[in-house]
Design brief:
Elements: E1 18-22, E2 28-32, E3 36-43, E4 49-50, E5 54-58, E6 73-74, E7 81-82
Antiparallel strand pairs: 1-2, 2-3, 3-4, 3-5, 6-7
Length: 110
């Protein structure tokens, strides 16, 4: 739907989906299903129209989980995706990324 006016409404997927994300330039919307990652072309010229959902890659089938991990990130150009996946040896997933906030304060002198 549009924001803030809430004057239009468009259906992006036909069979549901999760974790929608816009490409940086607004030309595509990405979403996941149980089977894969999908992209939908967006046309802003002369209004707002959506293309057909196109599967861009399959969801890797592993014994780890029947669902996608908690979301994904996509680069601004829509060419790369970042998401968690199970370890190759089948062990439990360990944190792959640690974010340290306010790290500069560690270097400040009293």
């Amino acid at each position: 739907t549009t924001y803030p006016g809430l004057t239009g409404r468009w259906q992006v997927s036909r069979d549901g989906g999760n974790w929608p994300a816009w490409r940086g330039d607004g030309q595509e919307i990405f979403f996941t299903t149980h089977q894969g990652m999908y992209a939908v072309a967006v046309d802003h010229e002369g209004g707002f129209t959506l293309g057909r959902p196109e599967k861009i890659f399959d969801r890797p089938m592993t014994g780890w989980s029947a669902a996608w991990p908690d979301g994904f990130a996509v680069t601004g150009d829509g060419q790369r995706f970042v998401m968690l996946r199970p370890a190759e040896n089948g062990s439990e997933v360990q944190p792959a990324l640690v974010v340290v906030q306010n790290w500069f304060a560690e270097f400040q002198q009293d």
